[in-house]
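INFO worker-7 received task bundle
INFO bundle size: 2
INFO processing item 0
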Amino acid sequence: MTLSAPPATAHDPQADGGLLLTDFTLDPGDLDWFVVNDNVMGGRSEGTFNIEQGVLHFAGSTNTRGGGFSSIRTNPAKLDLSEFAGIRLQVRGDGRRYTWRLATNARWRGRQISYWADFDTQDGAWTTVDIPFSRFIPRYRGATLDGPALEPGQITDMGLMIYDKLDGPFELRLTSVHAY
């Protein structure tokens, strides 16, 4: 899948809330999400998701005796978001801290890195979360790197994760993802 910003003459992308990346109305989901839990490294966290009636429901339980994370990610896509300032999410959370993850073809020591930006949720409340691209930090397997900086025109996949170093159940609902 390739998404790019419309030509500047088409319309003002911020006038309508930005570029819609997904609103979860296609079955099984227009970005083809999949689960990656910490069991890939011997952890014990569990998480899954489903998409119903335009809402992605991400839920499970984290266990810090191991990796301590659960995540969902999109299959590879090509997203040129160079004309935008960040990612906008519509979420209903549980009061825990979550992370939005972006990846590009950037490498560190020959290995693909990802970019993380944390956001807090309010228990039971729908909120709009704006995450500027400038807040995304390069990481490799959880370790913070000095660079390279995120290139919004080169995004290859996105993801949602919980890695707040707390044990216990989590639940987040997501109705849309925009570039703003």
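INFO item 0 finished
INFO processing item 1
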Amino acid sequence: MTENVESSGAPSVRESVERIVGGTLSSAKLAGACIERIDSTEDEIAAWAYLDRDAVRAGANALDELRRRGRPTGQLHGIPVGVKDNIDTADMPTERGSSIYRGRRPETNAAVVERLREAGALVMGKTVCTELAWMEPAATRNPHDLSRTPGGSSSGSAAAVAAGHVPLSIGSQTGGSVIRPASYCGIYGFKPSSGIVSRRGVFETSPTLDQVGVFGNDLGDVALLADVLGGYDAADPQSYLAPRPRMLEGWLAEPPVEPDFVWIDMPYASRYSTAAVDGSDELLDALGEHAERISSPQSFAALIECHKVIYEYEIYRCLADEREHHADELGATTRQGLDAAARRSEAEYREALDVRSAAIEWFGQFFHDYDAIVTPSALGEAPPVEAGTGDPVCCVIWTLCGLPCISLPLLAGESDLPIGVQLVGAPGADHRLLRTARWLLNHLRE
């Protein structure tokens, strides 16, 4: 396992907000430092789809002026945040990683962008995503090794945080597009339970599976960002009208008893890299009596196929306009994916939805005995760019069931590149999962 289990030593976002509000740090200075780091590495990393430096400076100055005038400040006041390019921004292009939407300017902001600005965050710009947030790789490179992928589809969001361009960013996950890039880029990634964060204004590829997630270099900061983004939205059919878990409170809380973890021998375990296996075994040894190891239920293999059926059936319909009117502008990987998706039948889709519902109910009972599943975030370290954005298989069951997931940058691969450890929690108990994650990080330091 790697030695560094917390942040890089830079001030946390919470500390920066306190200093901005207290007048000892300006948003303009913070944004200027981010621009300097972007300018020093962006030509190699290519994390940004859109960045207007003058607009960023003007926005930071405006936030500083609000503070100087004694106006209310927010939970993220003055903090630069990157936003994935499949998320609508009224004052910036949202091109969805596709030439089809080049120059597209939405009329309204996505719900998560509204919440960012309500909290005083500075929307730094739009981070690169893969074509239509699906499989066709983007130009973004992994900051740890430019010959490697940062993962997809939230390529730029993960790379921008890992490169120090911004302290926080927003992505989305339909398969493994938050947890896997976080693993490859050696940062924290968090996908809250389905329904906590509104998807209004996020480009839809699967109404059943699409979820919003966040990235950061400090898990407490990630929890704060998730708190800011959460809230009911009647425009999102998965959003629920009930109190949300308080993420940061969960992160800061001490568990009433030491948590219980479970390692599940997954049906794809033979595909883990040697380093992922060795690092996971070392982690389980460190957990000792706090971790139980069990075999996966036979149904888990079927759940992987269930996710594939639902995703393909729905994305084929979500991309109807693109495939019917812009097929010549789609990448080869996207066209191949759509050809395969066209063969999914209504009957197998309905059956897959039923299987998903049963799995969600099963997991609701499963977590009565455990605080978290511990499992790799990815099969291994980031593959070379020519191999694509990586395999999401380590994430798809949890995404299918809408479970909260965290990637912790704890392991290193054969080339000394990051591999994340994933914690999966009970649906709607995201605060408990964050509390458990902090306990784990503290336990590993002892």
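INFO item 1 finished
INFO post-check item 1: The mean pLDDT is 97.
INFO post-check item 1: Residues 133 and 153 are 5 Å apart (CA to CA).
INFO worker-7 idle
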